[in-house]
UniProtKB/TrEMBL annotation:
Residues 146-380 form the Radical SAM core domain. Monomer. This is tRNA-2-methylthio-N(6)-dimethylallyladenosine synthase. GO terms for cellular component: cytosol. It is found in: Cytoplasm. It is an enzyme of class 2 (transferase). PANTHER family: CDK5 REGULATORY SUBUNIT-ASSOCIATED PROTEIN 1, MITOCHONDRIAL TRNA METHYLTHIOTRANSFERASE CDK5RAP1. Keywords: 4Fe-4S, Cytoplasm, Iron, Iron-sulfur, Metal-binding, S-adenosyl-L-methionine, Transferase, tRNA processing. Binds 2 [4Fe-4S] clusters. One cluster is coordinated with 3 cysteines and an exchangeable S-adenosyl-L-methionine. InterPro entries: Elp3/MiaA/NifB-like_rSAM, Methylthiotransferase, Methylthiotransferase_CS, Methylthiotransferase_N, Methylthiotransferase_N_sf, MiaB_methiolase, rSAM, rSAM_horseshoe. Catalyzes the methylthiolation of N6-(dimethylallyl)adenosine (i(6)A), leading to the formation of 2-methylthio-N6-(dimethylallyl)adenosine (ms(2)i(6)A) at position 37 in tRNAs that read codons beginning with uridine. Its cofactor is [4Fe-4S] cluster.
Length: 446
């Protein structure tokens, strides 16, 4: 018999990257296996899981702010049970327990499969912390996928061995490790059986994935993609995030040979200055990065490109920042993410000399984002008049309106008699900075 204080409803709040979204979905599935249901919209949950990201500025402070909002003005018997998961939990587990008595559980991203047993302890009044990093053991302990979204995530690789000087991932997610080929093919098939039409393969450095196929042959990410493309019912494949050092010939060729692999590539560069890239411990130069993109575009001419940028890395000069703007002009990104440098405790860059003033970073970020937004809108305008396949993912704001993604990962909205999960032909009729208006042509597959 369950204790009377066992949570009956939950809410998982995930921050940051797609891998956190995947982890959040899996934690929700585990809670569902225990008979705990999602809290109705607008109602408080009995259990709140804050699935945190350590990449963003002041990540830990935002966690404490969320904890405060969850407990403010509530008595102990009405306050939710709180679990902190993810990368902030991994990096600052003991401190969270010390600073936030309202937190019952702290669990790192490699140990969240133990959340149910931690919950049992928490119900008995025992606070628990688990930040062990047991490789990929968690995946075997997770429940079977029974229901999913039309566009779903599949983590294939975790951790990173690159040790960029600004990044905490090697410390919070551990060394690079690849999930076994057979497990991934099995999970992909189950995702399709559960309703997925598109799968995005995830990894901190997804292009470093390697394994042995069912015949014992060594394969890389391209080989995995080629075999997943044979799964009946799977219409689209994407992958993120990659490192330029691990983009091999086979993966480049796959973009031109596999119809199900969408014409979109997210390949972070971080800066346009070779000196800054070296200080970041990035293994590429601006020129080698541009040459790599040329090879991908030669394989798939309609490829849309996305990237990541950091402005204000320690020691970055005005002239070096101008090199970043020059690289942006040369590429013409369809999408991109850009951030001000933010020191992460324990990373080499945090103690480097030449920390850039906040106001300088603010001005540089505004200029960079203006250039990136300009190019994104230009890319969207260049697709006006095209008719392409759109995967319907959700309803729009207005009756009869639907939202979905084009092959180039653009958001498109349109009206018509369709349903979530349908693949439809849509004419892109009007481009905005962040999305396109479309006109429904025909349904491809239900």
């Amino acid at each position: 018999m369950k204790p009377t204080n066992s949570p009956k409803t939950y809410r998982v709040k995930s921050f940051g990257c797609q891998m956190n979204v995947y982890d959040g979905e899996r934690m929700a599935e585990m809670l569902g296996e225990r008979g705990i249901v999602p809290a109705p919209e607008g109602e408080d949950a009995d259990l709140v899981v804050l699935n945190t990201c350590h990449i963003r500025e002041k990540a830990a402070e935002k966690v404490y702010s969320d904890i405060g909002r969850l407990t403010k003005g509530k008595t102990q018997d009405k306050a939710p049970m709180i679990a902190v998961a993810g990368c902030v939990a991994q990096a600052e587990g003991e401190e969270i327990m010390a600073r936030a008595p309202a937190v019952s559980m702290v669990v790192g991203p490699q140990a969240y499969h133990r959340l149910p047993e931690m919950l049992d302890k928490a119900v008995q009044g025992e606070r628990a912390t688990d930040t062990d990093m047991p490789a990929i053991a968690k995946f075997a302990a997770l429940p079977e996928r029974k229901r999913t979204n039309p566009a779903s995530f599949l983590t294939v690789q975790e951790g990173c061995d690159k040790f960029c000087t600004y990044c905490v991932v090697p410390y919070t997610r551990g060394a690079e490790i690849s999930r076994p080929y057979g497990d991934l093919v099995t999970e992909a098939r189950k995702l399709v059986d559960a309703g997925a039409k598109e799968i995005t393969l995830l990894g901190q450095n997804v292009s470093a994935w390697s394994g042995e196929d069912d015949k014992g042959h060594a394969v890389g990410l391209a080989g995995l993609i080629r075999d997943l493309a044979k799964v009946d019912g799977l219409a689209r494949i994407r992958y993120t995030t990659s490192h330029p050092a691990d983009m091999d010939d086979d993966l480049i060729a796959a973009h031109g040979e596999i119809d199900k692999l969408m014409p979109f590539l997210h390949l972070p560069v971080q800066a346009g200055s070779d000196r800054v890239l070296k200080a970041m411990n990035r293994s590429h130069t601006a020129e080698s990065y541009l040459r790599l993109l040329e090879r991908f575009r030669a394989a798939r001419p309609d490829l849309a490109l996305s990237g990541d940028f950091i402005v204000g890395f320690p020691g970055e000069t005005d002239a070096e920042f101008e090199e970043t703007l020059k690289l942006v002009d040369a590429v013409g990104y369809a999408q991109a993410f850009s951030f001000k440098y933010s020191p992460r405790p324990g990373t080499p860059a945090a103690s480097m000399e030449g920390q850039v003033a906040k106001e300088v970073m603010d001005e540089r970020l505004q200029r960079l984002q203006a250039a990136l937004n300009r190019d994104q809108w230009a890319f969207n305008r260049a697709t006006e008049g095209r008719t392409c396949e759109v995967l319907v993912e959700r309803k729009g704001k207005h009756p009869g309106q639907w939202l979905g993604k084009t092959p180039w990962l653009q958001s498109a909205w349109f009206e018509g008699d369709v349903g979530i999960g349908d693949l439809v032909q849509v004419e892109l009729v009007e481009a905005g900075p962040n999305s396109l208006a479309g006109r429904l042509r025909e349904c491809v597959a239900a």
